[in-house]
Amino acid sequence: MKQRIRLYQQPAGGWGALKSSLQHLREQQVAGLGLPTLLRTNQPDGFDCPGCAWPDKHFHSTFEFCENGVKAVAAEATSRRLTADYLGQHSVSRLAELDDYSLEALGRLTEPLRYDAATDCYLPISWDAAFALIGHHLQALASPHEAAFYTSGRTSNEAAFLYQLFVREFGTNNLPDCSNMCHEPSGVAMGEQLGIGKGTVTLDDFELAEAIFIFGQNPGTNHPRMLETLRDAARRGCRIVVFNPLRERGLERFTHPQDAWQMLSGGSTEIASAYYPLRIGGDLAAVKGMLKALLEQGYGDQDFIADHTSGHAELVRDIADTTWPALVVESGLSEQQLREAAAIYAGSRATICTWGMGITQHKHSVATIQMIGNLLLLGGHVGRPGAGACPVRGHSNVQGDRTMGINEKPAAAFLDRLGQAFDFAPPRAPGYDVVGSIEAMLAGKVKVFLALGGNFAAATPDTAMTWQALRQCGLTVHITTKLNRSHLVHGREALILPCLGRTEIDLQASGPQAVTVEDSMSMVHASQGMNPPASPQLLAEPMIVARMAAATLPQSKTPWLWLVQDYSRIRDKIAEVVEGFADFNQRVQQPGGFYLGNSAREQRWRTQGGRARFMVHDLPARQAEPTDESLFTLMTVRAHDQYNTTIYGLDDRYRGVSGHRRVCFINRTDMQRLQLQAGQWVDITSVWRDGERVAKRFLLVEYDIPAGCLASYFPETNTLLPLGSYADRARTPTAKSIRVRLSPSEAA
Ligand SMILES: Nc1nc2c(c(=O)[nH]1)N[C@H]1C(S)=C(S)[C@@H](COP(=O)(O)OP(=O)(O)OC[C@H]3O[C@@H](n4cnc5c(=O)[nH]c(N)nc54)[C@H](O)[C@@H]3O)O[C@H]1N2
Ligand SMILES: Nc1nc2c(c(=O)[nH]1)N[C@H]1C(S)=C(S)[C@@H](COP(=O)(O)OP(=O)(O)OC[C@H]3O[C@@H](n4cnc5c(=O)[nH]c(N)nc54)[C@H](O)[C@@H]3O)O[C@H]1N2
Ligand SMILES: [Mo]
Predict the structure, then answer these.
(1) Distance set, CA 683 to CA 270, 368, 662, 693, 741 (Å)
(2) Is residue 638 in contact with ligand 1, taking CB distance under 6 Å?
(3) What global pTM score does this model have?
(4) Distance 361 CA to ligand 1 centre (A)
(5) Could you report the per-residue pLDDT of 26-70, keeping only the tens digit for each?
(6) Which domains does the chain have, with CATH numbers?
(7) The ligand 2 atom nearest the CA atom of 182
């Protein structure tokens, strides 16, 4: 693979996106099935794109091209197969030497596997024996709380609903999920402030907005279809304002690959009308600065404030007490820039704020999101057409999984309804989240770890500790489509259970089944695969869950196997238990699905006090060693060719990197100050109260990034992120603010 660093000067999208898509289809050898499969992505009668949670236009009937959607679909529809033969000849220790890119390239798993300690290999096992082994281990535990059940956000509503039911009938709320590492702070912050933990806008609002503020998000890579929405907004004169330490190309200029004229003429659309490269973690200060500029002019929607909110006076006092120099230092932006951003806000009658991982993965993420909420509330921009809060979710059904009860702290009312519908007494004590599960495994309190999708060993912080934790388990079980790192970091006993993917036909006793998902804007719709399964031995996720439950819970009154013969039976149960799902089976048949509704959008505030709440927050306290000039703040982000821990390729096109993943972006003045040079290899050491962690050999890349800030990719850098470093109140690992220093690598 050619390694190269070169400034990228093209707009995002365009021919580069088409070329890269074709290359991925070729590499995955999907030629035969490729095109028909792609054309059914996000169609009313097709399957939901496993790429991201950005919604689709209503009643969509034309194929919407998305480069990273193509990669996600191609990765699943690949014709490559990882057979039991191959695994019988390649020990786990040997496989562990492969990098994540090579593991992914091995292809789809074809049959259930059990780890055999004698040969250090995964060997075939029958499905019956696999379920019996799970049942045996779970029943042997001293308490149901000694097992943890992880979920990754691609899981369908039907599978997720059955899974949480199984776990709760088993007797625990130990349901850690990828949300814990993702938008958990958005749920916590908005739940408290607006009375609902989900975004208040729909796609239609983007067509009416006069200003869109985008915080800490890179849609060009992670939500490419959002660029189309932004392009349309920019073209009709909507102001788009970006806060991001990096100048992400997709937010600057975009060429839509389906716009023939732009493609042929070499044209593009300017997206952002203002771009503020703030310091990492500077958003709380930046938004406070905007509030200060606005309040100094007496700005505010006084009717909205009086009718709908509480806490305005306290906020005004707090902002008046915060000085401009503090705001400037903390945000890394000038007073002038903050006033300018405030003026754009003040001039808009309909404002949307969107945010991503650049906001949620900090210690003060909940406070920052509530400050963004304050900004929206000040102008009455919640529950008004074209305005509102938009946390942009990651996994394609991560929001739906939460709606279905994948939550280690379930609401009492949900548990009441669940218990009633299935005639059992659900456990009430809160369970472990992701960080809590790792701690519990380390302490020997969790002995069985089961994962419905995902790649826990790679996605989680503190790699060394997490691996130790997983290896201490008596049994680890992974339901998965492909081999990944987590299967190689296993317990004393281990199972890999291969399942169908979204693109595949799911045939059960009553015929082919559809599942449902919920996007980032609370639209619920059906998804139905159309490819033959990668292997005849694969089972659908709902079936795997049902058979685990049947094997583990002989006394259960739930007709597990009957439910999965026809998924509309599961949906009838969901309708009984989950708010907003009445007549689920009928409503989901509308093309495009149905809207779940949102109380804040209707200006009903289900908060403490019954009003939307202005919330006061101090600027984040500077870390202990503010004067140590050798310390940086490192953010760990996604490259263009990855899906979280799945590495499709080694390029990060829009940032000009090819053939590399171990890079570290740094500002020129910082390099000069520390006598480092671009192209040099460095080790990164993180500094935390319990000691230091090192990640070796990263190539320094000179980049337009604020001084004192570094950027690198995950999962390679997760080894630097201390388990104890997480968001206040939401416990999301602080993947965007790791305190580190650099040192030259020893010659290799
Ligand atoms: N192709 C593809 N699509 C994906 C994914 C993928 O890996 N690949 N992952 C999916 C998932 S699970 C998720 S959660 C989403 C993630 O989508 P994003 O939230 O876009 O994820 P990141 O790559 O982590 O990018 C974070 C952005 O925040 C910026 N940033 C970092 N720190 C700060 C800060 O302190 N302040 C501000 N204002 N900005 C900051 C970074 O420069 C970067 O542009 O994407 C989903 N979609
Ligand atoms: N340092 C750092 N760490 C991070 C982040 C960061 O920005 N920085 N981001 C965090 C975020 S936002 C998230 S959401 C997490 C993601 O954490 P996870 O959701 O755990 O990780 P993924 O990489 O999305 O999981 C990929 C695996 O899912 C499996 N898979 C794919 N399709 C299917 C399917 O249809 N069914 C089943 N059962 N399995 C399937 C495959 O085995 C694949 O290897 O990572 C977090 N970790
Ligand atoms: Mo995520």
Answers:
(1) 38, 31, 10, 10, 8
(2) yes
(3) 0.97
(4) 10
(5) 777 775 556 667 777 777 778 888 888 888 875 555 667 788 888
(6) 81-181+397-595 (3.40.50.740), 184-392 (3.40.228.10), 622-744 (2.40.40.20)
(7) 12
